[in-house]
Amino acid sequence: MSALIDLFSVAAIGAGLFFFFAGTVGLLRFPDSLTRLHALSKADNLGLGLVVLGLIPRAENPLAALKLLVVWALVLLSGASTAQLIGRALRRGRK
Amino acid sequence: MSVLPALDVGLALLVVGVAAWTIAARNLFASVVGYVAYGLLLALVWVRLYAPDVALTEAAVGGGVTGVLLVTAGKRLDALASAEVGVPPGRALKILAGALAALVAGALAWVVLTLPSPAPSLAPAAAEAAAGPGAGLGNPITAVLISYRSFDTMLEKVVLILAVLGVWSVGADAAWGAAPAPLRKVRPDGAMILLAQFLAPVGLLIGVHIFWVGADAPGGAFQGGALLAAMGMVAMMARLAEPPRIDSRKLRLALVAGPAVFLIVGVAGLALADNLFAYPQNFAKPLILFIEAFMVLSIAVALPMLVCGPPNGSPK
């Protein structure tokens, strides 16, 4: 059973790392701010979500697991809002 | 080299690199962003040094509040239109400034390198105080802050109040008593309002939680207070709240509440526990939490008032 849980954690965290890697590559390689923003928000939302998913079975107690989920939710909220704010500021700057 | 030391070396190099980039950045905003990143990386360094209390403070103050303060200051300088277009300093001045900075850094390095071994330390005395008068608190950091070095902790908050007074006093005479200008002139974006509406209640809860667990686990008055202050700033940036008038009695009471309560309890220690800033043995923990609650209030009010700036507009 614990081997299965380990396997699940490794798979989820590995997938999360892949999204972080892809997001970082996008941040460095994409041509303009809007596309870079797009790459970054994927890394934050999906990458961190998968890492949290992989860590939940390893949490000491249900409260710690809940805290992990809250951390992810807060990053989702702030990531989505700041991406909106930066995107709108960019559009205003272009006009 | 195993994984963790390699990560530590990478982290240390990253901190130095970001610090150098922050100094070298030509643009004011870019260097502020660099400074915020530097503060967050430094928080990770503190975690690696097994100092989660310091890490929390660094993340909240070094990464968060100072960043907002610097961005706001930068915007005000931009409005004056003289921040970056002024005459660049001459070569002699640059060399002099560099030499002075090198001298200070060199003197500090010399002091650190020539420390006797073992270095003089207050740690045993602090540990004794944490085990004695601060007993009952599970978090030795809080015990040391409020019990062993209580006078310093109180004066730190007085410094915050003095800083707020300093900011207020650069306003025009005619504006004295009025409220500082709103943090945003135009109506903010829907995304900002949504963020503030969702984040502020959660942040308030986490701020109070960090203060409350500070007695027994990493956390404490400053960390919790800084988080509450940040939520206040978020609400003001979304124009869900406006800066209060600086002659408001409530505001002024909240500002001085922390140090005032600390001082009163400290002086009462003279009668109740035979010493200034001593606490009765069996009553230390509730007293310390009582003091800290007012400290949280003062910090949560003082930091946003620093960001809001001097009073602006007409009194009454």
Automatic annotation (TrEMBL), chain A:
The keyword Electron transport does not apply. InterPro entries: PhaG_MnhG_YufB (IPR005133). Keywords: Membrane, Transmembrane, Transmembrane helix. GO terms for molecular function: sodium:proton antiporter activity. PANTHER family: ANTIPORTER SUBUNIT MNHG2-RELATED (PTHR34703:SF1). Pfam families: PhaG_MnhG_YufB. The chain crosses the membrane at residues 7-28, 64-86. The lineage of its organism: Bacteria, Pseudomonadati, Pseudomonadota, Alphaproteobacteria, Hyphomicrobiales. This is Na+/H+ antiporter subunit G. It comes from Rhodoblastus acidophilus.
From TrEMBL, chain B:
The keyword Glycoprotein does not apply. The chain crosses the membrane at residues 6-25, 32-49, 55-74, 95-113, 158-179, 191-215, 221-241, 253-272, 287-308. It comes from Rhodoblastus acidophilus. Its main location: membrane. Belongs to the CPA3 antiporters (TC 2.A.63) subunit B family. The keyword Transmembrane applies. Keywords: Cell membrane, Membrane, Transmembrane, Transmembrane helix. It comes from the Bacteria. This is DUF4040 domain-containing protein. It is a multi-pass membrane protein. GO terms for cellular component: plasma membrane. Residues 194-302 form the Na+/H+ antiporter MnhB subunit-related protein domain.
